[in-house]
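Meet the record:
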Amino acid sequence: MLIAREIFLPIFTIIFSIFITIFCLEAFAQTLYRFENGHWLFNPQEQFTVPYAKKVDDRRQYSLLPGYKSETININKFGFRSADKNVDLNKTYVCLIGDSVPFGAGVKDSETLSFHMNMIIAQQGFDQIKIINGGVPSYNLRQSLDRYRIDIKPHFKCSALILNAANDVSLIDFFRENWTPEVTWASARKFVAVRKYSALMNYMKILIGHIGRGVKADIDQALSKALPEIRNDLEQSLTSLSKEGIPTLLLPVDPCYDATNNLRSPEQRHSCAGYKNFQQLAERWQPIISNINDILTGAAKKLDGIYFEDTAKFFNIVGRPGMYVDFIHRSDKGNKMLAETLVNWLKEHDVLTSQNKQQ
């Protein structure tokens, strides 16, 4: 008995000491994360849960829930974000499609891109034209164009489309070598919902990201597989729109930082104040973002009636501080600035004037 005690007591002491050390380190890391980000890592907002989404029986896998209401978000009976219940099917619309960026994640209904565009258009006398907010959080390019084909086209006349979706970038990064054209964030939900509870593991991943070279190799391999598929799929959908004669404006994936300048400059930190750890994510994602934007510009050069407007250059000129609420989503100020630019584009391409004359 004495011998067993002499053997197991030191082992127990070592195990207990390791447990206490890990517990203390985790508590410190959780507190650090709370201080840096304004919320706990295990907060539900970190999980992939969208209360205003519903399952659908097509390859998109999910869409918006008609009739959903909250203090900041309203989904109308057609499944589009809008606090306006008066939807006129006889009007002509400019249809925004894409992900949470045009949807307006992080802002109120009255601060979204579509709201500001509608206000500007009405003030300038184009009263027969409205903007539809067809954005759905976490949609990629394929899902966004499917949204037009399934949810919008059967009910609304779109004089033009504006497409802005960034989630091909995050899906390539998340799935890496397992990426396929069919993956969506619904596919990843069971993994995303539990992916980050340990702040200690979170900071270890950040450290590995700084010193490791394997991540870049994984992403390069994923890009070589994903980019041709995304390009072909996008061009097939845009070719149909080109044949239909619907002008389609493609917008770039444009995060909070200026990709043409040093990511570690003080101005960049000010621009991305809503996402303090932006540098690590930007360094990993920027090669993917550049490739996706190249696909968008290539499609616009190749197809009639398909356009690309580099709005990233616009924000680089006017300044980015205050334009974003986090890494990718624009603030009320950012949406208002972009709305002015897009309305000018619509006027320059005779989308607003020609439709107003017809009606």
In short: The radius of gyration is 23 Å. The mean pLDDT is 86. The beta strands are 53-55, 62-64, 92-98, 129-135, 157-164, 248-250, 306-308.
